[in-house]
Amino acid sequence: MWTALVLAVSVATPKPSATPPKTIIQEHVSPLCTGLRQNIGPAIAKVLQNDATIAQSRPLLRNYVKAAATGSASKDLQVSRMERLISPLVKNTSAIEKLLADPYVFPRTAVSDSDKKLLEMRAYLQQVVAQQKAALDVINGFVTTEQLGQLQQEGREIYQGLTSTHEIIAAQGGGARGPQATGAAPTPQPNEILTAGVAQTPQQQADPALQDNGFLAGHNPLDVFDWAIGQYQQQLQASEGATANLVVKALPLCGGRVPGT
């Protein structure tokens, strides 16, 4: 549906008329058609790209959970693949926000029906962007926290190695030097990854599937990330559906039509 909308919007032109339209009609229709072609259509195309990227994160999150549960080193590979999703999402989101902030297309206040339609479509697309950014926060928060945990783990291993070396030296009469002698604290434990980028809403906290109570077979608290992305996808589906309905209604005014409608 959305792909068809992008194609239909890209070729939409003001509907031809046998007689020259009145000035007031021309003023109402032309800005709408311009906005559809130059801003709304391209924004929808980038929204679709973001949807596809966000969808790629879910199997990676599931693979990470399996790897973490079995102690497999492949979990690092899943984190690396998820990291590659962040830049395209950030770039596309910025481009969408720029398209929707165009002051030459979107008026501050609606003074015509054309203005009202454009502002309505923009409002729904802005809602879509906010939901996609929330999903991006989950992905980015997960990757950043996991990478920080890896660094801290390496720091602890280095510290433990140094401590062992100093103990050997001390036992041989060389005296203790370095972290043990100076009283330096070891590297702290990794940050709790279960809250990385995931908003802890009352609904989430109350969901028994997300509680680490030890009674649910196969349950892993890391599933919270996949659950959060799934929730945002449901929200996106509703917001994008509302946007699509507005675009479908506006296209005939510009000589366009979505195939199958």
Please describe what this structure looks like.
This protein is an all-alpha fold and 261 residues long. The chain has seven helices and no strands. The longest helix has 59 residues, at 113-171. Mean pLDDT is 76; it is low at 23-28, 154-159, 176-192 and 200-217.
CATH architecture of the domain at 2-148 and 223-254: Up-down Bundle
Number of helices: 7
Share of helical residues: 55-70%
User: Count the strands?
Assistant: 0
Structure classification: mainly alpha
CATH class of the domain at 2-148 and 223-254 equals Mainly Alpha
On the 0 to 100 scale, the average pLDDT is 76
Q: What does the largest sheet look like?
A: none
Q: What is the multimeric organization of the chains shown?
A: single chain
**What name does CATH use for the topology of the domain at 2-148 and 223-254?**
A middle domain of Talin 1
* Succession of helices and strands: HHHHHHH
Q: What separation lies between the terminal Cα atoms?
A: 10 Å
Proportion of beta-strand residues? under 5%
- Rg over alpha carbons: 27 Å
Low-confidence runs: 23-28, 154-159, 176-192, 200-217
Overall spatial form: elongated
